[in-house]
Fold each of these.
Amino acid sequence: MTETDIPTIDHWVGGAPWAGASPRTAPVCNPATGRVTAAVRLAGASDVDAAVAATSAAWPAWRDASIARRQSVVFAFRELLNARADELAAILTAEHGKVLSDARGEIARGLEVVEFACGAGHLLKGEYSESVSSGVDVYTVRQPVGVVGVISPFNFPAMVPLWFLPIALVAGNAVVLKPSEKDPSASLWIARLFAEAGLPDGVLSVVHGDKEAVDAIIAHPGIRSLSFVGSTPIARYIYERGSAAGKRVQALGGAKNHMLVLPDADLDLAADAAVNAGFGSAGERCMAVSALLAVEPVGDALVAKIAERMAGLRVGDGTRACDMGPLITREHRDRVAGYLDVATADGAVVVVDGRDVDVDGDPGGFWLGPTLVDRVPTGSAVYTDEIFGPVLSVVRVASYDEGLALIDASPYGNGTAIFTNDGGAARRFQREVNVGMVGINVPIPVPVAYHSFGGWKASLFGDAKAYGPHGFAFFTQEKAVTSRWLDPSHGGVDLGFPQHD
Ligand code: NAD
């Protein structure tokens, strides 16, 4: 492909592709080949202005559409997505690199939220108190927030937008979505599918871009809320700037998820779980297990079982029969690989070195195989940093208490898991651990759509998690109405504070 053959990925505004005014673009690569496949437009502030204006113009009619009408659009979207999931999976694999089966899994978890949103009528209900005073009733209604902003990361280009869009839309909001510029096509595909499902033009806009677009979205007075998912430093920035600009903000950040294996655990089950949760999607998951705390004496046996399983993993092009694909960019691949030098310098033991991997794919791809590092010192950057790649660190600990103290000392609190056959220990862990999502013999405890997803500490800024009941609370504002239908007995002037009788 020559430069002139490379397609341009447009924004989506007013129910159609839109070029905007900014001449800036960024290359989009297929990580399995390293080749540039498209150029994505990068919006400037005036593009964001125009998109927000179009979205704001479309909002009132959508806000005023009945719940039944809004639900019917989401239901139609569900049917279309179910029927055409393979198309979207191919897009995910081509731009993100994850293997097709994993891409389908990502879509299935997004679809769950779509299905949850189809029951919006129940979740948008208010409350009613009759006769709080003589002839006076109080009731609450949930109304949409307005035009809401969603800013999503590269690692789940379909699922993360689908954590927010179905709920925001069914609740009567209009949305401006700014997906990751690294894999932008999935969000456009989703926007087209919503149009096909009957969403009125303009109610959903997709604006591509980088920091310039994000800053314009944060500052725009027409955007009433921000839902962000990405790394912790940017989440903190979005939360602080967005709150200062008067918006409601939920900003989900990075992670360093620990798996604590007690001596009584089933070590085969624990080894399977560590491999699946450590290397699925090349470790580029915010719920990946990246630190395994082995309570001695199980360390040697567990490391051996994990290494044995790793030997069977096939790394390569996600369209082939492989278990694990490439990393998202060459720069990220090199950054992750750099931690292996740090590990050696810090005295850790590299048991399986992903730099030596055999790959079923193009040599130009951003490859790094599954990597296992044992005896990682807790002062090493290998242990403290969110590496976001296929590197599983093992830390040997002497007791449950030592493991718990390490988890609690981490600045992150997204997910964690305990592996044990002792119900009492598991229950103690569930109560004591300072983390937002806990797995008991489950390594990636992502809650189903009718619960809510979110971590603690530096993994979530703001008080609303994603989807589930929190999603409906975030995308609506509650109004309390006090009502009295006048009759002659209510007359008279009284400047005192209203009391009930
Ligand atoms: P990122 O923070 O680099 O980017 C996220 C979004 O912010 C993108 O849309 C990007 O364009 C934008 N952005 C990047 N730099 C910016 C800047 N300087 N100013 C303003 N906006 C900016 O994250 P990523 O690399 O795309 O995704 C991986 C990260 O996301 C990991 O840290 C992972 O743990 C986290 N993540 C968290 C969750 C969660 O639920 N907590 C889920 C998925 C991913």
Amino acid sequence: MAVYFHEEDLPEGVLGQGPIAVDTETMGLVTHRDRLCLVQLSDGKGDEHLVRFAPGSKYDAPNLKAVLADPARLKLYHFARFDLAAIEHYLGVTAAPVFCTKIASKLTRTYSDRHGLKNLVEELLGENISKQQQLSDWGGPLINDAQRDYAASDVRHLHRLREVLIPRLEREGRLEMAQACFDFLPTRARLDLAGWANHDIFSHE
Ligand code: MN
């Protein structure tokens, strides 16, 4: 198991077949303002790949974009809505089809209001992850070891979480509803980018 660091694109052929876990780190939560700094990927076989984009990057990353846009490859996220918007805005691709562990958690762990990745990893996998570097400067010239470990750990558990969450969705009769939510997520992200981030178009108001 190793963490690999790449600049500006993913090397060709470093990922195995099958679903791929994806996460992003940005300069903040306002997608248009806060640039995409890092895209993390894992094929679930033990290695993580971090792709870093420098200030002023052209985001010309053909290998990464090909993987993200591949309609035959399921992408696993925790809170896909944010990552999909950042990827769409900066890389210009729709990184679907989607499985979102946060949505799956909300549709099954109705006994809890704690749907953070750390909560899921603790409860469903019995492991501990640190979120200490979550609010750190991802735009600097160097990413330190603590940031590297944190960034990698955000994609390390998503395959196993999906394996636990699918039977729960089935048990509660909500797999179909979850799938419909996942299918809608790219549109939800586009609504965010288009100015409807804080307005629920399904509400009466
Ligand atoms: Mn993250």
